[in-house]
Design goal:
Distance between the termini: 26 Å
Number of domains: 1
Largest sheet: 2 strands, parallel
Strand order of the largest sheet: 1-2
Oligomer: single chain
Strand content: 5-15%
Radius of gyration: 14 Å
Number of strands: 2
Number of helices: 3
């Protein structure tokens, strides 16, 4: 799985989000045409990130964030 963690530190959250979204759209363009045209949703994992980074991602249009730890399921 490709991760943008180090990329966001180097380029900023906005650039990292754009890069990931571009890769997602490229993958969508390659999928077989007989599959349903459902737009994938990018879930940003924010559980270990500082609040200012999460707020910056939100400011750049990211609306879905994940916080779960497997341990918390029990």
């Amino acid at each position: 799985m490709w991760r943008a963690g180090s990329m966001s530190a180097e380029l900023g959250v906005g650039c990292a989000l754009r890069a990931v979204n571009e890769r997602v759209q490229q993958a969508v363009a390659r999928r077989p045409r007989d599959l349903p045209a459902i737009q994938p949703r990018l879930v940003a994992v924010s559980k270990t990130k500082p609040a200012d980074m999460v707020i910056e991602a939100y400011g750049h249009g990211q609306r879905t964030f994940g916080e779960n730890y497997v341990r918390a399921l029990s």
